[in-house]
Amino acid sequence: FTLLSFGLFMVLFSCSQDGPKLSETGLIPLPNQVADGSGSFLLTSEAKIQLQGEDPKLAGIAEYFNTSLSAASGYRLPVGTDEGTIKLQVEGDNSQDESYELVISESEITIKGKSAAGVFYGVQTLLQAMPVEVFGTALIQEAIQIPAGKIVDSPSYAYRGSMLDVARHFLPMEDVKHYLDQMAHLKLNYLHLHLSDDQGWRIEIKSWPNLTALGGSTQVGGGPGGYFTQAQYQELVQYAADRFITIVPEIDMPGHTNAALASYGDLNPGINLPDGNFETITKSIEKAEDEFKGSNITRQAAELYTGTEVGFSTLDTDLELTYQFIDDIVREIAAITPGPYFHIGGDESHVTAKDDYVYFIERVQKIVQDHGKTSIGWDEVATSQLLPGNVAQFWALEENAKLAVGQGNKVLMSPAKKAYLDMQYDSTSRIGLHWAAYVELDSAYLWDPATYVNGISKSDILGVEAPLWTETVENRVDMEYLVFPRIAALAEVAWSPGSSRNWNDFQDRIKVMGQRWDIQGIGFYKSPLVNWE
Ligand code: TNX
After folding, report:
1. In the predicted structure, residue 411 carries a pLDDT above the cut 80
2. Of 80, 167, 212, 239, whose CB count within 10 A is highest?
3. Which Pfam families does the UniProt entry name for this protein (predicted)?
4. What does the buried/exposed string (b/e) look like for 5-26 if buried means 16 or more CB atoms within 10 Å of the residue's CB?
5. 347 Cα nearest atom in ligand 1
């Protein structure tokens, strides 16, 4: 009898509790401090959003909040400066400070940020504190219950990013926007777009139109490829900015340039000799001119490439036209990129002589600087003299990362064994590569950027980026399968202090994240390490 009545009591008790505590709502990335309160805020169409502070971005955040909820709630809340029950407040003018405080009581919700970005992240946490149904499109009839409590939060790293390789397989605007939506939910703030590679050139360059007309016309496997016009790229930049995400454009060079070399024969180190032979890379045109005095030596465009080999192409580092070409590209892209960074690639230049590579990288860094941007390059660039402030993106070689730090430059952490979203989960994954490792969800979660490379500590690290290479990714379904759920693990690695991270706890929270993804129709990988039911 006692057991039975205890059971009955528990049932009644949990009914009256009605819903989880704030700390049990599946918050990812884990906030720094979460304190549960009592009771909950009941959100209905009666609520009003009150903007406090001068920041013009507040109105945009309120709009974002309304749009995020409107499908499930069926209403949009009025927004103004009059007294309201949901207060969004910027209490500072430091746009670098992304911290926020979220307080939920039975009568009101307050989000205070040191910057608009902080308020935006507070809104993301607030959305996660709501029942997962708010992420769907089915109308919620009753009030939306939000458990009371207080959250104080700020990110561990300033740069929390992901990369999409739109070169190997082109991904259309809608897919990139969809990705930006999901990044925003995870408080990621940089999207790196890998806009050129051997298989395709994906951004319109008005002064070099063949790059897209020819170089953008195919992709891995021989499909039709595609590219972004500058207007479309600007649309992505704006869409990202509305979500406090900065776009980092990458033009990969001097290797990974076959699409450019196929578009403009004049750039190709391959030369036609008067004896009828064709010679690539090994012989400079000057040497050939010497040898065949007075003869007509010409260059020839490369063939378009649709395979997945790497390391076979290079720009001609001795050719002045190469640097005019790069200057035009950097100028055009920099002009439509408000963010501080321009990514120059620099990886896997296996057919560029070492001296030529160093000369090239040092010269290209200056071009980027002249156009007002800071260079990021894959870790190989650290074998050159880096300009102050430039960033090396660690993916493979620890010694390169250390070279960067030795020069006083920062490192962006993308170790392939942990952060590469194109790695297979295990040997049965239907797509993906495994040259670095199999990366199950626990492996993507269980590492600390600040201790990953011996001799590189937190102050040397700009942040964390999770790249998705797309040799095996043909469409959104493929993308979702490889990205989710690992991106959530990496977002937490980038945001939450190492000391607070806990795999068992993450397993509970990722389960709720999975419900949010399910409701949004995202086909994520149901890792067997998580009990999703
Ligand atoms: C290495 S990571 C590459 C890419 C490939 C990737 C596949 C890097 C800087 N270079 O060209 O797409 O591996 O995992």
Report:
1. yes
2. 167
3. Glyco_hydro_20, Glyco_hydro_20b
4. eeeeeeeeeeeeeeebbbbebb
5. 9
